[in-house]
Amino acid sequence: MNLILDFGNTNRKLALFDQGRLVDLEQHPEITLSLIRRFIVKHPGIQRCILSTVIDYPSPIKRFLSSKLFFLELDEKTPLPLKNRYRSPATLGKDRLAAAVGGTALFPGEPVLVINAGTCITYDLVSSRNEYLGGAITPGLQMRLQALHTFTGKLPLISLRNSEILTGRTTEESILSGVLAGTAAEMEGMVDRFSAQNPELKTILSGGDQNYFNKRLKISIFARPNIVLSGLQQILQFNVDTTP
């Protein structure tokens, strides 16, 4: 069994994969060594672990995992089941890379675009030759709401909620329309542009804000809520299988 640790900007996740299948998932504001210990006790068959992080984390976590398990911390030097063509691999977000790996595992031999709607919205492209080519980064929904409030004199900071209203008749409705409908239009436009350059493109939608777009988008998508975790599982298993 494989332990997957994903320390993102907003959420931290512990996941368990057994024979390639996600069987347990926990999400916490912070993940401590005691939480990891408890999770391992809960699942005594864990033998391997991969950690992906975009934040600093306590060094005792790494020491503990290294001493107990086959441990891999994802970085730009980690062997991957695809070719990374990004020009600055040291600056590439680990979640973007993992999402790309997860996407190409679903559609091997086909061009894949993974949209991950989280703190930021990322677009990541893998070619039909299994090459990660790069993509795009735009602000996520919460970031857009915060920016409208921060960089104007009078617009309020409102809570994100689903809304189908296009023509807002209040300031709150207008903000929600701009953020939700505007972001959906952005996604559709980006997919059209990527598809024009990559015929037969498969598009995967994932991330914590995925549910705001599943029914809103007027394009063909495959919803996969845990594509980053799946990609990390693929990377870990690839390294296990190729380690002498």
Describe this structure in words.
35% of the residues lie in helices and 25% in strands. It is of the alpha/beta class and 244 residues long. The protein folds into two domains: 1-73, 2-Layer Sandwich (Nucleotidyltransferase, domain 5); 83-226, 2-Layer Sandwich (Nucleotidyltransferase, domain 5), CATH 3.30.420.40. Strands 6-9-8-7-10-11 form a six-stranded mixed beta sheet, with helices on both faces. A five-stranded mixed beta sheet has the order 3-2-1-4-5, sandwiched between helices. A hairpin with a 4-residue loop joins strand 8 and strand 9. The chain is globular, with a radius of gyration of 19 Å. The mean pLDDT is 93.
Q: Could you tell me the CATH topology label of the largest domain.
A: Nucleotidyltransferase, domain 5
User: What share of the residues lie within helices?
Assistant: 25-40%
CATH top level label of the largest domain: Alpha Beta
**Major sheet: arrangement of strands:** 6-9-8-7-10-11
What percentage of amino acids are in beta strands? 25-35%
Taken in chain order, the helices and strands follow as EEEHEHEEHEEEHHEEH
Q: Please identify the structural class as seen in this structure.
A: alpha/beta
Q: How many strands appear in the DSSP assignment?
A: 11
How do you describe this structure in short?
This protein is α/β, with parallel strands linked by helices and 244 residues long. It contains six helices and eleven strands.
